[in-house]
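Run tRNA dimethylallyltransferase through structure prediction, thanks.
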Amino acid sequence: MCWEMRPQLGTTRRAIWRTWPVLCSHHKLPTSSHSAKKVSMATASLPPAEKKKTKKKDTVIVISGPTGAGKSRLALEVAKRLGGEIISADSVQVYRGLDIGSAKPSAAEMDAVPHHLIDILDTTDDYSAGSFFRDARRATQDVLDRGRVPVVAGGTGLYLRWYMYGKPDVPQSSMGITSAVYSELVSFRESGQWEEAVELVARAGDPKVLDLSVNNWKRLSRRLEIIRSSGSPPSAFALPYNSFHEQHDPELTESSADGNCEATKLDYDFFCIFLASPRIELYRALDLRCEEMLADTGGLLSEASWLLDIGLHPNMNSATRAIGYKQAMEYLLHCRQNGGESTPQEFLKFLAKFQSTSRNFAKRQLTWFRNERIYQWVDASQPFEPVVQFICNAYHDPDARVVPESLEMKRESCIHKTQDLKTYRSVNRVFRGDDNCSHVLDWIRRTQGK
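Sure, done. The structure for tRNA dimethylallyltransferase is below.
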């Protein structure tokens, strides 16, 4: 829970939440705020020798937000105006052929602005936060070396956290360890004994393995490899993110902040924006987005059918666990088992599941990023042009990096009482009745009855 959600802690804590992203750069706050004056005075009191030691870092813009918030459009326009290139922080856009379900940029958009880490893997491959850290850092430096502006855009929270703070320094497995772990788990995997395999790893010394998503065999194997290599579970190794925040106490107050906290720790000067909207509004937009992905049978359904055709199954790897693809593959498998037949009720049930899963994912994203203090929250419902202009101005003038109140989204505004969410009901705007499903059911009959 973020500090702004706790009124009993007073205004000092809320001020730190608002100014933290600026405190975490090597630039002083705007002198218009009371806390900024204190930070500026603290920075000004540093000896000249210490000031000279502070080397100006390259600025990297990070634009995140929940699925469907409009972060890709915002990143595209910012990159156009600043002479930037976009580095995708999306765990599904890395896969070739998964275009509609991942809301991948169009060919025209990628022609207008260079994009990185899109279409770099086959759907049979796995991808991880560690892989993203390596690839995104390499792409960032490449963009900077060519005098361009890196704009990192995406909503995969762990990817972005590792990208900015660093990845855990866990031991690499030798070929012998990897082979031995494969031998330990192969019989469980081939027989579909996921729970038994999890129990084996838990007994080996990693009780937190119970929190893994079902059938995530790659991550399960990696956890066992770490145990076999080091004798310790993954949780025994310090996370750079946690270490950083332990060094920079979250109980910082205006009087103790020195305005220089992260400058000597992070590799770049990260300017981070989180684009958000009230949850009910976001849910309505997501429900419609799900419908639109299914309305054209050449979209998500066609891509999910292709995944099945090449021998993949739901939950088999990163691509088939992705929201939308997993649900569509499960639905199409059911249709294939019925000879290519499906009823409107079955289709609408699948759509409702897709929508519900998407909303739950957005909720988890909001929860995750509420606790990421480096981000400033921007209201996605505000006019587009002022938001773009603020980001561009803040890039050129780091002293202007605090979001103006007219554009700010309060973190607590994305929280609704349980009763508010209980009364939410999805109302379809494309598939309003059985007749609206007929073209989809015809497509299923033609293509899934093989």
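The radius of gyration is 24 Å.
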